Amino acid sequence: MQIKEIYCKSILSRSKIYGADYSINPYFGCLHGCTYCYARYMLRKLPSNLMWGEFVHAKINAPTVLLKELRRSKRGRVLLSSVTDPYQLVEAKYMLTRRILTILSSKDYPLIILTKSDLVIRDLDLIKKFSDADVGLTVITLDENVRRAFEPKAPSIYRRIAAMQKLKEAKICTYAFLGPLIPIISEFSIEKLLTKLSKINVDYVIVDKLNVKAGNKPHIMRAFMLYYPDIKGKIEKILSNENVYDEYYADLKVKIRNLAQKLDLDLEFCY
After folding, report:
1. How far is residue 130's CA from residue 223's CA, in Å, rounded to a whole number?
2. Local structure of 27: helix, strand or coil
3. 114 — phi, psi (to 5°)?
4. Please, are residues 184 and 247 in contact by the beta-carbon 8 Å criterion?
5. In this structure, are strands 22-24 and 78-80 parallel, antiparallel, or unpaired?
6. pLDDT for the residue numbered 79
C-alpha cells in the first residue's frame, strides 16, 4: 500500500455531475478498492505497477489552494467528492476534508458530500453550520458478503446505515446512493434495502447504473468468478451486449421505481 503526500496546483474543479457546480477531491486514489469503481480510468496517468485500491496521494496543500481559488470563482454547489472518498481511512490522519469544510462553511457554500465511511460523523459540528448541505452514504446492498466481494476494504454496511441514522438525528439532509447497481446481485436484497432506507427516513435516494467502460470490467468479472461463479455466465451475457444491458436495466428500474412508490421513498435515477 502506498500513501504519499503531494502538492496540487488546483483543487476546485468544474463538475459535470448533475446538481454540482464544482467538485473537490482532497485525495488522488482511494484505499476502499471497490472492484466496480469507474475512477480506475485515472490509472492511465500513473506507473503500470500501481493497483487501484493500493495507493492514495494526499493533496496536503489543498486547503491553501482552495482559499485562493474561491476568491476568483463564481459561487456554486460543491461536491465532496467525485473520484475519491473524502472520508477514506487516511482522512483520520490528514484531516484535509475537515479543513476544506471549515473553509466552505465560513462562506456557507452549498454542499454535497458522498462517502462510504462513517468517519463523516466526526464532522457533524461543521456540517451543521451549512444552511444547505446534503450528506450521502453509498449502500448497494445489505449483504456483507456482497460488500466483501465488491467493496473489500470499505466500511461495513452496518456502519454506513448507523451513520445515516445519526445524520438524520442531527437533522442533516441525508440521502442514500445506490450506485452502482450490480446486475442480478443487487436484485437479491433491493427490497430489503429500500425498506431499511424508508425506516431510516432518508430524505431521498439516488440510483446509478454500473459503468463497465472505465477499465473496471475485468475486475468485476473476476469478483463474480471468485464469489458468484454460478451466475458469472449470466452476468457476462448482460454486460457484453449493450442492448441486452439496457433492456435489463430498464426492467430493473421499473421494479425499483414501483418499490419506492410503495415505500413512499423519494427516488431518482442517474441514468
Report:
1. 40
2. strand
3. -135, 125
4. no
5. parallel
6. 99
CA distance 210 to 81: 18
The enclosing H or E element of 173 equals: strand 173-181
Q: Three-state DSSP class for 174?
A: strand
With cell 475486475, the residue in question is: 219
pLDDT tier at 48 (50, 70, 90 boundaries)? low
Average pLDDT, the chain: 95
User: How many helices (H) and strands (E) in the chain?
Assistant: 10, 11
The CATH number of domain 2-269, selected from 3.10.105.10, 3.90.1150.10, 3.40.718.10, 3.80.30.30: 3.80.30.30
Which helix H or strand E contains 199, and what residues bound it? helix 185-200
User: What pLDDT is recorded for position 54?
Assistant: 86
The H-assigned helical ranges of 22-156 are 62-71, 91-94, 96-106, 124-127, 144-150
Q: Model confidence over 211-242: pLDDT tens digits?
A: 998 788 999 999 999 999 999 999 999 999 99
